[in-house]
Design brief:
- The chain folds into five domains: about 110 residues, Up-down Bundle (Four Helix Bundle (Hemerythrin (Met), subunit A)); about 120 residues, Rossmann fold, CATH 3.40.50.2300; about 130 residues, Response regulator (Rossmann fold, 3-Layer(aba) Sandwich); about 160 residues, Reverse transcriptase/Diguanylate cyclase domain (Alpha-Beta Plaits, 2-Layer Sandwich); about 240 residues, TIM Barrel.
- The chain is about 50% helix and about 15% strand.
- It contains 31 helices and 28 strands.
Length: about 800
């Protein structure tokens, strides 16, 4: 692009930007008048914030730096009102009014024709592979800003594609490859909408797609949230052209390492060369191996995304390879493409990779080969996500999966709150740990090198005696940890000792600067009402540590006297008022992903404390009208009500399990109520609602339970027996009870399954009893090695650890 052409485009963009200023001024004035003279409404505060945020992020980009400065001043005054929902005090209202007047004046000055700074000469096109054919997706709802950024990117030699929403970008992914994503943090009605979207779809996008966050918010907490969501970098608005081009170029320097990695195993040298050439042209990075018995060493070196191999090879076949991979958690989620027309391979596909397989016959079609590999990648990401949802950790020596960590933290928080009432201390810390030079590590060592450093840090953390594996990866180079605090130790000194121990360890093998850490934390003392509040407190402490690198470790202050101590009276009032929250916990099917959820509960008292069922159920019989049976009625009614809200295919296929209280009243009184609720709901499809009872209760009075189950089935409901242990009581169950629709295994099966000779026959009898392994559910999976053991035994249903609100869970899809 010539300098003249660039200048003309810049001039047109500035004029177009100026035309938008009167509308911004109208929105700001209109909502401020409403806030001042009518009522203080969150919707108007949000509208003002969005307008100020856009102006702060765009003014200087077009040469009007005063608009950026004044927009940012107004935005910062509005942020606390959005985060807390509070009505502004008189002093803050006056400050907002003055900031708005200053911003309007800056816009009027721009419209009067005060000359903005002239555009600089075009930046020279970025040379080399980074710019050659690279496609940049830009998600930005402000058309003016998007036009400016696209101009800069195209002038630098990139192919820039613009989307107004993250959802539009997501829908386009099937139409072509993207090398980098520029994502705005804020969207209308969602100050952190870009971050929230990225958290939800990071697995679906693939971990190696670099994401750069754009935001007018420069506070450290926003940067932390972007990092936690998986962003590779963060650019503050207004974006400087040199910073944009430099950052994009830096992230794409290692684009070869970002290509999907294929390990090709075949003893046919000529075929390997042909496949390598074909796949390289289609954007894959291929490593060929002609000695099949060296596959494990090659896997260690190549760390592939997909494995391509002939089903029949000298010394080893496909089934043997797949079994080897399933025993190593590092390779558990690698899909396999078999280049074979062997009918045995097709008939034994369930013996192979957990995440999926494909079979292509020779001679190969190049287009079909590439499409099969990309489809396998997508399928593998989805199944890998489900595995993480349903297991406690990926590998025995690693940190916990996020869902399990949050579930365990929620239980610990409740236990500490209960303990606080008796005056006992918690002896635990929650730490938010960040590698604050992660940008440097990624640029210095590339994507694969950074991933290796990340893995080494995780293993080091998991192996620390004060951590004992109790932590999770919270984002790229971001970790959450629960530490046991020894008696007499000062919390901040203890956390700082851990940080210094990590700081002194060489995680990069002597190749340049090592990882540098910042830590924020909080003591678990029962003073936090929820896990969300606890996480925010630790996050803010970490942000403070990041601002002051000389400190390194910051612990949030807590006031034990301010702790919301649970009291018998508070629980009684909450139970009488039925302050329950319905939650859903998924049961994941790795093959079909058929949506099945188990209903659960939370109780909230007037102070905002949240209680798990184990912490309040003992009080329900004493305080609640109708006791546990009354609680069951509440759960049944609310659950079915949520089911009736579903639309489309979900309205006929999604199902929920409701666990009934194991009491005589359940057998005597609930059936008429269930019949009334289910029949009035007019739920479509069959087995939409399952009812479950534990094995121990069923075996105390099997005849009465069998009668209850029979009536439930006549209502088109499903029945389940859970906590099935597999011992003598289970043998009695199979001889005395008609088979239920499903059986959920007790958590003790995590130990039983290790003794395959003993566990195998019992599982086989259970599967025969209940109509196949498809009707068995495993729960509480500790790690992926156990996951593989259950898989080999034919189990495909696994109960996950995370629990969601109905509106979120019933819209949930494993990515």
């Amino acid at each position: 692009m010539t300098e003249d052409a660039y200048a003309e485009k810049m001039k047109a963009l500035r004029l177009q930007y100026l035309k938008t200023l009167p509308e911004h001024a109208r929105v700001l004035n209109e909502h401020w008048r409403r806030l001042r003279h009518v009522s203080w409404e969150a919707q108007s505060v949000q509208a003002m914030y969005q307008a100020a945020h856009k102006l702060a992020g765009s003014g200087a980009t077009f040469g009007f730096s005063d608009i950026t400065d004044k927009g940012r001043a107004l935005e910062q005054l509005l942020v606390p009102m959005i985060e807390t929902g509070e009505v502004a005090a008189p002093a803050r209202r006056e400050a907002i009014h003055n900031a708005l007047k200053a911003l309007i004046s800056a816009m009027e000055a721009a419209l009067r024709g005060r000359r903005p700074a002239e555009p600089a000469a075009p930046v020279a096109a970025v040379p080399g592979a980074a710019a050659r054919g690279a496609r940049i997706a830009l998600v930005e709802d402000d058309e003016m800003v998007a036009g400016q950024l696209r101009l800069w990117l195209e002038e630098a030699g990139y192919d820039a594609i613009w989307f107004t929403t993250p959802e539009d970008f997501e829908q386009s992914l099937s139409q072509g490859h993207v090398d980098l994503l520029l994502l705005d943090v804020s969207f209308p009605d969602a100050p952190l909408g870009g971050v929230d979207w990225l958290v939800a779809v990071r697995d679906r996008l693939g971990q190696r797609l670099p994401v750069v966050m754009l935001s007018a918010r420069t506070d450290m907490t926003s940067r932390l949230r972007a990092m936690r969501a998986g962003a590779a970098s963060y650019l503050p608005k207004p974006v400087a052209r040199e910073d944009l081009v430099s950052r994009v170029h830096s992230l794409l320097e290692h684009r070869e390492a970002d290509r999907p990695r294929v390990l090709l195993v075949d003893d046919d040298v000529a075929l390997c060369s042909w496949i390598t050439t074909v796949l390289d042209e289609q954007g894959f990075s291929v490593r060929a191996l002609n000695q099949p018995l060296g596959i494990l060493d090659a896997l260690e070196r190549a760390r592939p995304d997909v494995l391509v191999l002939d089903y029949q090879m000298p010394g080893i076949n496909g089934v043997e390879v797949a079994r080897l991979l399933r025993q190593d958690p590092r390779y558990l989620d690698i899909p396999i493409l078999f280049v074979s027309g062997d009918p045995e391979a097709l008939s034994r596909q369930h013996d192979f990779s957990i995440v999926g397989n494909a079979f292509l016959s020779k001679p190969l079609d190049p287009v079909q080969l590439g499409m099969s590999l990309r489809n396998l990648q997508q399928q593998a990401r989805q199944v890998s996500s489900r595995i993480r949802m349903a297991s406690a950790r990926q590998r025995p020596e690693g940190l916990q999966n996020r869902a399990f960590f949050l579930s365990a933290l929620n239980e610990a928080l409740g236990a500490q709150r209960l303990a606080s009432g008796s005056g006992s201390g918690s002896g635990e810390l929650l730490l938010h740990l960040v590698v604050h030079n992660s940008d440097y590590l990624r640029q210095r060592h590339g994507v694969l090198g950074a991933a290796s450093i990340h893995d080494r840090i995780e293993q080091a953390l998991a192996g620390r005696p004060e951590v004992e594996g109790r932590g999770c990866i919270w984002g790229e180079f971001t970790y959450l940890l629960r530490l046991s605090l020894p008696e007499g130790e000062l919390a901040e000194e203890y956390a700082e000792t851990l940080r210094q121990a990590l700081q002194s360890k060489d995680f990069v093998g002597g190749e340049g600067q090592s990882a540098e850490f910042s830590v924020g934390g909080v003591v678990l003392d029962g003073s936090h009402a929820s896990v969300e509040q606890l996480l925010r407190t630790a996050e803010k402490a970490c942000a403070e540590a990041l601002r002051d690198k000389s400190t390194g470790t910051v612990l949030a202050a807590t006031d034990r006297t301010a702790a919301r101590k649970p009291a018998d009276d508070a629980l009684r009032q909450a139970i009488k008022a039925r302050n329950y929250r319905l939650m859903f916990q998924p049961i994941v099917n790795l093959e079909s992903n058929e949506p099945l959820f188990e209903a659960s509960l939370r109780l909230e008292d007037a102070a905002g404390n949240s209680y798990l069922p184990a912490q309040f159920l003992e009080f329900v019989e004493r305080y609640a009208e109708g006791g546990l049976t009354g609680l069951d009625r509440w759960v049944i009614e609310r659950t079915v009500q949520e089911m009736t809200q579903l639309r489309g295919k979900e309205a006929e296929s999604w199902a929920v399990v409701i666990r009934l209280s194991p009491t005589d009243e359940t057998l005597d009184k609930l059936l008429p109520f269930i019949a009334n609720v289910v029949q009035n709901s007019r739920l479509k499809g069959s087995r939409r609602v399952y009812f479950s009872l534990p094995e121990s209760f069923v075996m105390r009075q099997p005849a009465r339970v069998a009668t209850l189950f029979e009536h439930l089935r006549k209502m088109n409901c499903g029945v389940m027996i859970d906590e099935v242990a597999g011992g003598s009581s289970t043998e009695g169950l199979m001889s005395e009870m008609p088979a239920p629709d499903m059986i959920k295994l007790a958590v003790e099966w995590n130990q039983h399954i290790r003794q395959r000779d003993q566990a195998g026959p019992v599982l086989a009898r259970l599967a025969s009893y209940v109509g196949g392994t498809d009707n068995l559910v495993a729960a509480g999976i500790e790690d992926t090695q156990l996951f593989a053991s259950f898989w080999d035994a034919g189990i495909r249903n696994f109960q996950g650890f995370f629990i969601q609100e109905p509106s979120e869970a019933l819209a949930w899809e494993a990515h």
